[in-house]
Amino acid sequence: MSTTMYYEKFFHFLCILAATNASIYENLKYFEIMHADELHHHIVKRGAQESVHPLNKIKEVRFKTLGRDFRLILSPKKDMLHSKFKAYAVDADGKETSVHIARDNFYAGRVFDEINSYASIHIEDDGVMTGMVKVKDETYHIEPSWRHLPKLDNRTMITYKASDVKFSWDHSTLGPDQVGPKICGYVKEGSELEDKDDYESHRTDTVNREKRQAEQYEYSITKTRCPLLLVADYRFYQEMGASNIKTTINYLINLIDRVHKIYNDTTWQDRQDLDGFKGMGFVIKKILVHNDPTRVRGGEAHYNMNRDKWDVRNLLEVFARENTSKDFCLSHLFTHQTFNARDSVVLGLAYIASPRLRSHGGICSKGVQ
């Protein structure tokens, strides 16, 4: 599996998550409501003395929903955030204000007495949970209800099964003459910026590398984590974060955690007869949340400016110009808007870069290898 396909899959998964943010009645066949008071918490201490070690305290959480009893065994999750992780609120003038995030509120674990189960949970100070529980043949999701049912108590959650999610682009529901919408797209960059010598050199290197791989298939993996920059514009902050900085940041961390789990457990291989490799994933290094539209000066466009309608390609280009730091292998903008492209609706767009010299945009660009 190539690196390009690796991150393209990541991007497509995030687009699917974004697409589920429509009406809950349109997107779910069935769901249930659960209140934070129905959760039963118990902390089991390990060791005679207090310690920062993640196994020093294990939290047990019990609840009933969707026809079964859950008993989760959880410990603080430490591997999703970079050692130099920072989160900031960004005002209309671009001023960044540091935001403290309680790392110990993020948990990972399993379902008691169920082999190969997995749980990833964030617990707010008021007891509201967000996360997922995966067992052998099903995945259960837990989310705050205000995002879908704003009239309910803020300490209420909804629970649903992954198998009950209805995707609007599911071709099985379309007629014989209907075509499903285009959900996510990508832009290949670089070919227009390179001269013939660069192209010939790259082609020769590619042929030689493929020949060597054919003779002896061997991976030498030195980096297994992609440090991310996550940016939420003011629309996402208002709609998905309930105009709350910490709620927005916690939501983004939960999204990436779900994606990381998929990638970390996936075996990547070019051919079925070869072993391939696994253990690739993501770590969040920085999060920026815009709490207001950015004031623009001098007519220069900004991805967070107050504009009624964006062309998706134009927004991608403007965002890429603003975020070119080599401290991250991938920058991702979250926005609460859809983009019309001819007769379809595009929920996201990404660069798929050329590995050639002087190319730009995308995960494969020179300088982020």
From TrEMBL:
It comes from the Eukaryota. GO terms for biological process: membrane protein ectodomain proteolysis; Notch signaling pathway. The gene is LOC108738958. InterPro entries: ADAM_Metalloproteinase, MetalloPept_cat_dom_sf. It comes from Agrilus planipennis (Emerald ash borer). Coiled coil: none annotated. This is ADAM 17-like protease isoform X4. Signal peptide: none annotated. Gene3D superfamilies: Collagenase (Catalytic Domain). GO terms for molecular function: metalloendopeptidase activity.
